[in-house]
Design a protein that fits this description.
The chain has 147 residues and is mainly alpha-helical. 69% of the residues lie in helices and 0% in strands. The radius of gyration is 46 Å and the shape is rod-shaped.
């Protein structure tokens, strides 16, 4: 019994086979010893489960933080792409205009050797000549029924 009071549950209680009162007391102490062993085992399992749960919680928190960071980076990437688009549009237009000013100037009507595209039977040379003097709804020529 002294071993049980000090926490040593490995030794079985002696005298549990005795048919008298001492044997009954020994059997009762043996039940206490078995219950103490079961309690210790349950506490160990509970402690292990708690440690696993805490570890899983730390992993989930890290994964959550990674997802938040990824979402922030994606939003920042979208913002940067939008800003780049808004900056590049005027720059692209400016470069196009500047390059058209640089291009050799000449008789535009004379260079109108463009083949018919989309508007069957349209004479592009005539189109350029008439639009230079008569800007109007030229698109009706292409959209007219039968074209």
């Amino acid at each position: 019994m002294r071993a049980i009071t000090t926490g040593d549950y490995d030794r079985r209680v002696q005298g549990t086979d005795a048919p008298d009162e001492v044997g009954a007391m020994a059997r009762a102490v043996e039940v206490f010893r078995e219950n103490a062993i079961a309690k210790r085992k349950t506490e160990d399992e509970l402690r292990n489960s708690k440690e696993k749960a805490e570890s899983a919680l730390l992993e989930l928190n890290a994964a959550q933080q990674n997802l938040i960071d990824a979402e922030r980076l994606a939003a920042l990437g979208g913002l940067v792409a939008g800003v780049a688009h808004e900056v590049n549009n005027p720059i692209g237009i400016s470069l196009t205009v500047a390059s058209s000013f640089r291009a050799p100037r000449g008789n535009v009507r004379g260079r109108a050797e463009i083949p018919t595209v989309g508007c069957a039977g349209l004479n592009w040379r005539e189109f350029v000549r008439t639009r230079a003097t008569q800007p109007s709804n030229w698109w009706r020529t292409c959209i007219a029924p039968g074209n």
